[in-house]
Amino acid sequence: MARKPAVSAALCLIFVILIWGMNWLVIKDALQVAPPLFFTGLRLLGGAAAIAVARLALGYQLRIGDRGRLNLFAVGMLQMACGLGLSLVGLQYLDIGRSALIFYTMPLWLAIIEWVFDGRRQTGFELAAIASGLGGIVLLSANGIGPTAAPMTFDNVEGVALLLIAAICWALGSWLANRSRSHVDVWSRTIFQLATSGMAVMMASAAIEPHFDVKYLSALAVPIAFNCIVATGLAFVAWYYALASIPARIASQSLVLIPVVALTSAFILKGEELTLRTVLACLLIIMSVTIVIWQREQQSSRGRVVRASFSPIDEADKPRASVSRSGLSVEGSTHARR
């Protein structure tokens, strides 16, 4: 009987990886119609509304409380407003595959942040992995290799810079979240961060982006519905359900497959060019991120609890997580995004 929940959890995890990987294609199409910050604000606010309605319909209360609210807001602004917002702005200038790969280097930046601010010792293996990951970023940033390579265009550099800043912002949010504990349930926390970040991004869009013509709103119906209902609502439920049966270290490491799904699906469905240079960069980044996460978890097992940088979820939180048969009741002290 134990095998059945494990299989269901594995299927949920696969669903999450595929949906969050494929969502890069959906967003790329949406950016043909809507400004990036405007679309980011819509998806964040819509996601908050979708989760809140589902929770309230099931009879749960949404409680934030006064303690730790500022910290929750700061983490949400770093990861959702800055991380997701800037990643969409950068996606305008780069193809889907390279954008996803650069954005998912956040564990590398988290390791660097911990070294700078916490004095955390890096093993030689981990340093080599970080260097390999940075080398992969260089490969993605260049238009070619060798003396005949064409120089990088301005748009290319701009897109790479925006995606790197987005990844660093996400890593900073993880670093801040790892230094605080909240007794707010995971769903209330997620709704609060989605809503506050969404409002902040919408205000930024109104201030700096061109006015969005409402006659194009119908063209965003499918992308917004997919992001709010599937990529946020259903995917979050599937993620938490998977965590109830799968060790958090395995679940968090599996998220490195998301940019691989984005890269592969963009090649198959969108006809994006898949060069040997891109494949090599993908291998370097995925390998380096996997090693960095694994090294952090090895240190955790030797003396302290370490949360994975993709989602600040650790084994100490697992006993407090519960999933109802509907899959919508998940209580814990941590959360995952994207």
Can you walk through the features of this model?
This protein has 338 residues and is mainly α. Helix 6 (124-141) packs antiparallel against helix 12. The longest helix has 28 residues, at 3-30. It is built from twelve helices and no strands.
Any descriptors?
338 residues, mainly alpha, single chain
Concise account of the structure shown:
By secondary structure, the protein is mainly α. Helices cover 67% and strands 0% of the residues.
Q: What oligomeric assembly is this protein in?
A: single chain
Terminal residue distance = 31 Å
Instruction: Give the strand tally.
Output: 0
Instruction: Summarize model confidence as the mean pLDDT.
Output: 82
Largest sheet: none
Shape: globular
Tell me the series of helices and strands, N- to C-terminal.
HHHHHHHHHHHH
The fraction of residues in strands falls at under 5%
Number of H/I helices: 12
| Approximate helicity band | 55-70%
Helix-strand layout with pairing:
Elements (H helix, E strand, L loop, with lengths): L2 H28 L5 H22 L11 H23 L4 H8 L2 H13 L5 H18 L12 H24 L8 H23 L12 H23 L4 H7 L2 H13 L6 H26 L37
